Amino acid sequence: MGPIGENELFFILQGLKWTVLLAVIGFIGGGVFGILIALARTSKHQFARLASSGYIALFQGTPLLMQLFVVYYGVALLGIDVNAWVAVAIAFTLHASAFLGEIWRGSIEAVPKGQTEAANALGLHYVSRMKDVVLPQALKISMPATIGFLVQLIKGTSLAAIVGFIELTRAGQIISNQTYRPLLVFGIVGIIYFMICWPLSHVGSGLEKRMAKAAR
Amino acid sequence: MGYRFDFGAVFDRAPELFWGSLGTLGLAFAGMLLALVIGILGVAARTSKTRWVRAPVIAFVEVVRNTPFLVQIFFIYFALPLMGIRLNPTVTAIIALGINGGAYAIEIIRGGVESISKGQIEAGFALGLHKADVFRLVVLKPALRAIYPSLTSQFVMLTLTTSVCTSIAAYELTSAAQRIESDTFRSFEVYFTVTAIYLVISSLMMGIFALISRSYFNYPTR
């Protein structure tokens, strides 16, 4: 058994950096594509609705781990010479966009219909109707679920470890193998995830309670 | 480009994919059962009047829901032998899945129990129903109906989570895929095919859950 010293902790914190970065990229990339998915899902055009619901069903009906593998090897097949980092970031972006798209579809539909009708009556275009009337309200409604998904995404980045990517969990695995102290190491790793996710979860459920009260 | 797809190499291993799928279903159902048991016991403890019974359950739910399953399964995998418990990877995986799913089940079931108002139970008694009938018809069935959608989608998610159990070499679909990949080097084809199998499994589960819901909970509420 080896000691867990400064070097080991530093290595784990290096992994944490990549975990945070992956989550941020997945969340931002997923957010941008997610808006498009949500708009397609709620559009008048049947093809857009069908395609986006198929996209969502595909990503919600398969394991994140498989999505990582398929994108990881799929990107390589396209002949694009990218490193593991880019492939994993693409996979998380696709994954997040499907889930955020579905969350935001629900929020867009939760905005009272009268709002859309009023915007139409005022002669607003689709873009202005969405940008100025519907989406700001939908965003507020979606906050608890969006934060809830962010927690899922942060936890999900741990699966990049199985593809061989060195983030927090993989860093823990490496240190655990070096020091033969799995319980201590995975305890530390677990506590780090908890310290990131728990406050977020509380913000999310707090918002949810406040909105439930306001709705009463 | 110039890459030639070769799905034949994958289809040659169809029996392994079949047994792997059964392994996945086995892990999922055993995990679901354990999650339900933990969920029901957890809710009983969670609604206890004693603070020292409630607090550990709340802590358990918070810790499990705010840490990754992969870290949990590693922790359990290494912790059990230290406690003198030697189990094979499959049983370890079921325990990890049950604990993970159980934490979510506690939250979902608690919501359902709390959705039954006291006045409804009193109304049941006022109508002259037996205690058992009040429990079955006024408490249990409406509560089940309230939690059914979230509980079953949690079960579908648990089924997809079983793929992570490959990390401790439990026997399931993803571990079968990894074996086939290392033999054939047809990485993309293997994972593409296996992803499709997962999609079929989860779609079937959702379909069955929806059918059960339609036949059992199909009654007007207002």
From TrEMBL, chain A:
Gene3D superfamilies: MetI-like
Membrane disposition: Multi-pass membrane protein
GO biological process terms, semicolon-separated: amino acid transport
Compartments, record wording: Cell inner membrane; Cell membrane
Record-level Gene Ontology MF annotations: transmembrane transporter activity
Signal peptide: none
PROSITE patterns registered for this protein in UniProt: ABC_TM1 (PS50928)
Record keyword Transport present: yes
GO terms under cellular component: ATP-binding cassette (ABC) transporter complex
Superkingdom: Bacteria
Family according to the record: Belongs to the binding-protein-dependent transport system permease family. HisMQ subfamily.
Name by which UniProt lists this protein: Amino acid ABC transporter permease
Species of the source: Rhizobium tropici
Classification lineage: Bacteria, Pseudomonadati, Pseudomonadota, Alphaproteobacteria, Hyphomicrobiales
Automatic annotation (TrEMBL), chain B:
Main location: membrane
InterPro entries linked to this entry: AA_ABC_transptr_permease_3TM, ArtM/GltK/GlnP/TcyL/YhdX-like, MetI-like, MetI-like_sf
Keywords assigned by UniProt, alphabetized: Cell membrane, Membrane, Transmembrane, Transmembrane helix, Transport
Domain ABC transmembrane type-1 residue range list: 21-209
GO MF annotation, one: transmembrane transporter activity
Transmembrane segments: 20-45, 57-79, 146-170, 190-212
A cellular-component GO term for this protein: ATP-binding cassette (ABC) transporter complex
Membrane disposition: Multi-pass membrane protein
Any single GO BP term: amino acid transport
Pfam families: BPD_transp_1
Matches recorded under NCBIfam families: HEQRo_perm_3TM
Similarity comment: Belongs to the binding-protein-dependent transport system permease family. HisMQ subfamily.
Annotated protein name in UniProt: Amino acid ABC transporter permease
